[in-house]
Structure formats: structure tokens, C-alpha cells
Amino acid sequence: MSAGHGHGHGHGHGHGHGPARPGWRARLAHAVRPHSHDPADSLDAALEASAVGIRTLKISLAVLLATALAQAVVVAFTGSVALLADTVHNFSDALTAVPLWIAFLLGRRAPTRRFTYGFGRAEDLAGLFVVAMIALSAVVAGWQSIDRLLHPRTVEAPVAVAVAGLIGFVGNEAVAAYRIRTGRRIGSAALVADGHHARTDGFTSLAVLVGAVGVMLGVPAADPVVGLVITAMILVVLVGAARDVLGRLLDAVDPALTDAALRSLRAVEGVRGVEDLRLRWTGHRLRAEVAVLADPGLDLAAAHDLAHEAQHALLHGVPKLVAATVHVGPWVEGVAARDPHAGVAHHPTPAVLPGLTGA
Question: Which CATH class is domain 253-344?
């Protein structure tokens, strides 16, 4: 017995999302404003999350472009390689909003007979572009810094350079906080990673201040040296961003989500054990496929009801979950007289998580 409906999780209810039973206030609110389990509500919630992500990208793109343009004007007059490295990185960071924007638009399209899960994975592919842009900015910044060490140039107006570095920090930090907050709220790893990228850019902009101060103190080499430091910091960001993006492409999830799903399922009355559990992100939407064990004496209607109770528990207990497919199998103490899975035993099956079976 399986049940697999995509449920919207924007219930607007008053109780928490853990496995515990709701209190009397929550039950009263539920009676007045019952949960909606129409698949259309799940689509509406997903579309709303995409719209929020697009709005965030629009605003952050405008802020970063204005920041980078202001820095570029100072570079043209001062010739600071440290500021140039930071400006190039800020431009690249601004441009990463474009593929993410396109990915959010694609993710809003309905599933088709060819793309039955929809187009949410476009968001993860856009993350690859983000990683590529970070790598490119590291190469450009490093090359410019080494070239300036080999061919020194006088940095003019170091005070203006310092001010431009401060502008870069303020602009990037504002964008970072906005992207991270929105990304966490809608469950977009790509947007969160891009926010952390912007935050690191802000700190590298502060490093430009150090180079400018070094020039004012009579140490011209401080400028390209700081450019190399910025390059190293970009490489650190590159490693973290690549790990997160590739993890999503390999269906990695936070183990805390897996634990939350198990707690929710095991708290459902009638669930004797969890036989299998799969969680997968498709962009900023989380989906689940689970197999639970129940009393073999249940009739079809009771097994169907139990599957829906398990779905309901998952939607409450696992953040950002929009759909769950639940298979109900028989729980047999000891050795079963008949293997309930004998009909498909000759087909290869993927390994399951260890230690799942049992309540």
C-alpha cells in the first residue's frame, strides 16, 4: 500500500513541526482553519518561494553592481591592484545572480511527461556556474597581484582606495545578510552559498583597507600582497561552495533532516518500523520516499489511512518538505511464512540506511 501526494506545507497553523501531539490551542486553530492537503497548495507554496528568491536576486544584483561600479571608478584613478581584485570579484558575484534568476524561473514550470519531477534541479546547475565564477575571480585576482609584484606601479590616492574598500564591505555585507536570510527561509542552498560568498567578499574588501594603509605608511608592496591574500580567501570560498553544490547534485541532505523524518514516522500510531527512507532536494524543495511497517492484519483502507498519517507527520516534522511517497508493508515478528517482497526479489534493490527496521 503506497500513498504519494504532494502536500503544501504552508498551513499557517499554530503548533510546531515536531512529532509531539499539538496542544488544545493548536487543535482549536486546526478546527477553525484546517490543513490543506491539495497538491495545488504545494505548487502555490513553491511558486511563492521562487518569487521571493527572484526578488532577492533582483535587489542584491542592483546593490552589488552599484558597489562594483563605484569601486571601478576609484580603480581607474588610483591603479590599486588590491582594489582591482576586489572589484573583479564583486562584479563576478553580482553576475552569479543571473543564472540563479533563470533557475528560479525554470523551477516554477510545471512537471512534464519528460521532466516528471519538474525543473527544480536547474537551481543546482546554476550553483555550478556560481562555483565557476568564484574560480575565475580567484585566477584573475591572483594573476593581477603577481603581475603587480613583478611590475610595481604607484598607487595614487590611497585614501580613496580605502574608502572604496569600505564601500565594498558595506555593499557585500548587506547583500550577504539578505541572501542568506532568504535562502534559509525558502530552503535554497544555492542562494545561501551565494550569500556566504558575498559575505567573504565583504571581508576581502576590508583587506583593501590594509593595503591602502600600507601604501600611506610607505610600504607599496602591501597593495599586491593584500591582493594575494584576497586570492587565498577566494579559494577558501571556492572549496566551501564547491562542496555544497556538488553535495546537492549527489542528493546530500543534512543528517538532522533524516533524523527529523525518522522521529516523525516513529511517532505515528500504527507504524511498527521504518524499512526505508530517502530524502532528496530538487532545488529548494524537499521530497521523501519512505517504506514503513505495520500490522499485517490491516485492511486496504486502514493501510491507506496509515500512509496518509505518515505523510502528515513528515510534512509537519521535516522543514521544506513538499511531497512524500509512503509505502506500507507488513511487520512480521520473527520469520515470515511468506516473504511479502518475494515478487520483486529477483530485481536488484539499492541498499537502505542501517538500523532503520524497528520502531
Answer: alpha beta
- One-letter amino acid at 340 equals P
Q: Which residues pair with 323 in a beta bridge?
A: 6, 287
What ranges do the domains of the chain cover?
Answer: 40-249, 253-344
CATH superfamily ID and name for 40-249: Cation efflux protein transmembrane domain (1.20.1510.10)
CA distances from 286 to 106, 290, 335 (A): 17, 13, 36
Q: Cα dist. 76→161, 210, 232 in Å?
A: 11, 19, 24
Q: What is the pLDDT of residues 86-132, one digit of tens each?
A: 677 677 667 778 888 888 888 888 888 998 888 888 888 888 888 88
Partners of 6 in beta bridges: 323
Dig out the grid coordinates for 280 from the structure.
Answer: 532528496
The CA-atom distances, in angstroms, between 331 and each of 228, 298, 339, 357 are: 62, 11, 11, 10
Give backbone dihedrals phi and psi of 240, rounded to 5 degrees, phi first. -65, -45
pLDDT band at 197 (very low <50, low <70, confident <90, very high): confident
- pLDDT of the residue at 268: 93
Q: Where are the alpha helices (DSSP H) in 113-221?
A: 122-150, 158-186, 189-216
Q: Which three cell numbers stand for residue 283?
A: 532545488
The mean pLDDT value for 227-245 works out to 84
As a whole number of angstroms, the distance between CA 202 and CA 294 comes to 54
Burial class (CB in 10 A: 0-12, 13-18, 19+), 127: buried
- Check whether 4 has a pLDDT greater than 70: no
Three-state secondary-structure class, residue 291: strand
